[in-house]
Amino acid sequence: MKKIYCSLLLMFGMIVCSYAQGPSGMGKSDPEAKKVLDAVSAKFKNYKSVQAKFLLKIENASGKNLGNKSGSVFMKGTKYRITVPGQEIFSDGVNTWTYDKASNEVTINKIDPTANSITPQKLFTNFYDKDFLYKLNDNVTMNGKNMQELELTPIDKTKAFHKVLVYVSNAAINTTKVFEKTGNRYTYSVNSLVTNTVIPDATFTFDAKKYPGVETVDLR
Fold it and tell me: Within a 10 A sphere around the Cβ of 160, how many other Cβ atoms?
C-alpha cells in the first residue's frame, strides 16, 4: 500500500504542480509541453476545493492486469484526504493520519515542511519543478476524447520509475501512467471531478470514534 500511496501522491502532484526546465547539463524540456502543464497548474490553483474519483489499474511488464482499485480524493488548500481499498490518508496541513484497515491501526505523523520526503505540501507547491524533463508527444484518442500526451522523465535516475505519461484534455489531467523500472505500470484515470464545493475541515482529520478499537501509533 505504501507504493500505491506514493504513486497517488505523484499523480496528484502532477495535477496541481507547474513544471520548469531541469538543471543545466541534463537536457532541455519542450517549451510547448510547459505551456500545457502551466495551463493545468493555473486552472487547478484557482480551485478552492477539489473532489475526485479515480480508478487505478495495475499491470505487469507483459501487460497482464494485476488488479483494479477505485478511490477518491478531497483537497482544500494544504489539506487532503485520499481513500483507496484498505487504506485512508488524512492531512489537516499539520498532521497526517495513515489508517490501515487490515490491522485497524492508524499512524500519526507531524508534517515537516522542511523535510525532503514526498508530502502533499511540497507536491502542491511546485515540488517537481526541477525533477523532470518533459516533452509533448502526438495527440491521442482515449475513450473518444482527443488528448494531449506529455512524456515526463525523472532527472534522478535512482527513482523506481523511469517514465510517466500524462494525458490532458481541456487543461485538465484525465489519465496518468507511471512506468516502473520493474516493468509494472500504474494507470490512474479520473472518473469524476467536482470543484469549489464546501468541504468541512473535519473531512481532513482522523476521527477515532468512527473506527472502534483502532490502535494508534503516534510518531509526532
Answer: 13
- β-partners of residue 163 are 179
C-alpha neighbours within 13 Å on the C-beta side of residue 179: 13
Task: List, for residues 133-146, the tens digit of each pLDDT value.
Answer: 889 999 999 888 99
Strands 215-218 vs 50-59: parallel, antiparallel or unpaired = unpaired
Q: What are phi and psi of 119, to 5 degrees?
A: -135, 150
Residue 25: predicted pLDDT: 44
* pLDDT under 50: residue ranges of the chain: 1-4, 13-25, 119-128
Q: What is 2-218's CATH number?
A: 2.50.20.10
Q: Where are the domains of the chain?
A: 2-218
Concatenating the DSSP letter of every residue in 129-143 gives TTTEEEEE---EEET
